Amino acid sequence: MAKLDISEKVIALSLLLIVTGPLLMYYSIVNDSTSSLLAGLFLTASGMLLAFLSPQHRHG
Amino acid sequence: MLELWLLSSAPFVTLLFSMIVLKWPSTRAGAASWFVSAIVAYMFFGADINLIGLASCKGLLLGIYVSYIIWSGVLLYNIADDTGAIADMAAGFSAMSGDQLIRVLLIGWTFVSFLQGIAGFGVPVAVVGPMLTSLGVQPLVAASLALLGHAWAVTFGSMATSFLTLVLVTGLDAQPLAQWSAALLGVSCIATGFLVSYMYGGFKALARGFPVVSIVGLAMALSLYLLAAVQSYVIASTGAGLVGCATLALISRMPKYRTKASAKRNGSSPLLAFFPYAVLILLSIIASIGPVSASLSSSIALSLPFPETETSLGWKNKAVGSYSTIYPLSHPGTLVLEAALIGYIVFRKKGKTKDGTMGRALGKTVKQCLIPTVATMTMVMTALIMNEAGMTYVLAEGVAHVAGIFYPILSVFVGMLGCFTTGSNSGSNTMFGTFQRDTARLLGVSEYVLCASQTTGGALGSMIAPAKVVVGTSVTKAAGREGEVIYRNMRYCILASLISSIVAWFAIASLRG
User: Domain residues of chain B, as ranges?
Assistant: First the structure.
């Protein structure tokens, strides 16, 4: 299997945060937990920031 | 009111400006528009963090739905590519006609529409994009062509899910709505045929393809209308696409289009090469059969319930028992994955695979799919924040208010806007279906024509919807160039929508007169 380069690793991390963040927010909203709501928001925003800042190469 | 309208358009403007003008990659543009939508929703539309969180989570679920198809489609392509099947398939299509324009029309207009009828959800673009590149079409043009060619078939495609959604949300009678929708989509079908010719080869191809497109387009449009009129909504696009393929195949046998020698075969086997895609078509048909579909859907279902949310401005989102339910056994992504695995097994038995084919295909798939997946997630989350905060509604309402009696001309564009934000015709119909019906009643015009315009715009919007564009670019090795595809397709989308708008306008005028 081909190894991921640094920009792909950053995007993969961004994806992980974008997936876990909203799920954590959902969990906290249905369970009334403010601390995990903010943690979820922080994770989502961090994932978005990584997606925004990640160096990217174009294919094709 | 004007301030709110301008603010509600901010995420759109950010997305379009950054992708088209600044040429940012879709992940960066999507992330920027998510930040803009969250800030605007929080500061000016009275959305709290709960609403933004739940909207993002809904977006995530929709994003997962689409991404599963992208990953499976790209894996299928990579397996086919590694075994040489894509090259063999191109040889097969080349053998059908010596005329490259006929091949492009056959694959990028009629066949892609047939696939939209049976599969949909991005699968046709995922399948046809690589076929077009294998014929020598540039990756960006291939992605654009596949998106353009299939758009007219979207409403009655995927087993008519978008049309049935419109019927459900508006409560209108299905048959007259189907007839008006088929009439407008039939016009769009012929228009997209001409536009596919033009996109492929400019005015020269447009002129040369004129008789073929006229005949095939008319055959498909009539088939669509007849099937809609006899209430065969579920197979309307499939049937029309099949008629188109058959008519074009017959025309390709005419001496005028058989002039050049067919491509070299080099011992390739196009039928074997097409095998995984034939399996996909077969699986899609089986999965759509009533009892099979019901049993696949009743076995496992993944979804989340969502509570009601409300902004401080009074915009309410009803509680949903199960949002964006994914049925893993009948999900299009699963069908594509099954086709890929069956195809791999058959290729292996026939000695077409090399050492490490599956490993290479998986590795390439991960590399190719990361960017489209993040892009899809960011853009769908943005769209959902806009919807749940009432921003999209404000945007559409402003357009309707300003347009007044001329609104019917703009109604197609409202449908297009809905598809652009949600990435689907069904999403657009859900978002704007009742709005279009109510506007028609307020203006005293036919609600059937206006709702038909809505779904026509929603269908045509598929060619520029970022969530669909990323499918096209990811399978044609043009990932990260979504802005260029959207920019290229925007002109064609506006032109096709304008033609439908004019027809809708005349229909409304004649009904009034």
Answer: 2-317+325-512
